[in-house]
Amino acid sequence: MVKGLALDDLHALLLAADVDRVAWFGAFCRSLVHTGLRLGEMLAQKPADLLPGVCALRVDRTYHGRGEFGPPKGGRSRVVEVSEQTMQALQLRASLQAPFLWTRDQGDLPWSLSYCDLTMQRVVGHAGLRETVTLHALRHTYATMLLDAGADPIWVKTQLGHASIAMTVDLYGAGSSGRRPDLLTGLAAIEPTRHAPRSARIIPFRRRHRA
For residue 155, which phi and psi values (nearest 5 degrees)? Predict the structure, then answer.
């Protein structure tokens, strides 16, 4: 069962990332947990992919490393909605006027996946978390937090870029711990508002004979 980070663990991770020697890593982790993008998708983000008018990101490529790019997993592009705060943070990265939002010293390529993974391992250690926590756990955290908050699974599926709603529900729905008793109040509409008269005659079901 796929699970995201508990809130306390997430806070510990972000605080450790903020003081890491890689100055941008705290912002990078926040961008992942606020967008649900895969690592390669985030590294492939360009300033032109930001859509501030609708507070969204265009995701149409992923970074494989060593200068190689490809389509997102599943081969489908998508538009991911983000909060105004997240858009402002990403626009700050775009203001550096580099080809990609996350580049090394204004370089022509994004940071390598291995460098990001190694930085994450160091931050996880400083945060006192289990060694199995990876950057991909931030995507899981994004999904489970949305579903726990009562988000429509179909919308979450679109945000994540899953091929089917079954994948979203199977991966994250079973691990959702959120209770929504408020949603059950709508079931009251099932009950008739009037009772049937006592003299009502019940008509037995009759099977139709085929000719």
Answer: -65, -40
User: What value, to the nearest 5°, has the Cα angle with vertex 128 and ends 93 and 15?
Assistant: 30
Q: At what angle do helices 7-18 and 25-35 cross, to 10 degrees?
A: 150
DSSP codes of every residue in 92-158? HHHTT--SSSSBSTT-SSBPPHHHHHHHHHHHHHHHT--TT--THHHHHHHHHHHHHTT--HHHHHH
Domains and CATH numbers, the chain: 7-173 (1.10.443.10)
CA 27 to each of CA 60, 91, 102, 114: distance values in angstroms, whole numbers, following the listed order: 22, 12, 10, 18
> Is residue 189 scored above 80 in pLDDT?
no
For 156-195, give the DSSP string.
HHHHHT-S-HHHHIIIIITT-----GGGGGGGGGGS-SSP
pLDDT at 107: 80
Token pair in block for residue 39: 């690592």
pLDDT digits (tens, 9 = 90+) for 69-112: 999 988 999 999 999 999 999 999 999 999 999 997 768 999 99
Q: What is the pTM of this model?
A: 0.81
